């Protein structure tokens, strides 16, 4: 291979376009090899997998004041207390504090056979009726 005596750039010093013509001057999109986000699904895929995992997909807006309420049915209370040593009140009813367990509301689906005392933020009317009919009590708050 023949080595140039002088670099090509030395010969072109002072010229405006360095041999790339008058229109583009070596600055068009095809010369860049995919600047910016071009090619993230094609030839830059390995880079996307490693560094740009969240680039594709939906982002959206999440309302900061919205909160998903956790609820539990009356029929599920028995399985919730099975096998646990829970405290009892003076009447012998098991005390279940759903607020501490992370539940917000008590709903009325299912059956209950034992008298229990339930502390919860909200309860439906049917849930209250079922617990009170078996000798239990619902404390809202």
TrEMBL record:
PANTHER family: 60S RIBOSOMAL PROTEIN L27A, LARGE RIBOSOMAL SUBUNIT PROTEIN UL15
Family: Belongs to the universal ribosomal protein uL15 family.
Functional summary from the UniProt entry: Binds to the 23S rRNA.
Cellular-component GO terms for this entry: cytosolic large ribosomal subunit
Keywords: Ribonucleoprotein, Ribosomal protein, RNA-binding, rRNA-binding
Gene Ontology MF: a single term: rRNA binding
Protein name: Large ribosomal subunit protein uL15
Organism annotation: Thermoproteota archaeon
Origin superkingdom: Archaea
Upper taxonomic lineage: Archaea, Thermoproteota
Keyword set includes Cytoplasm: no
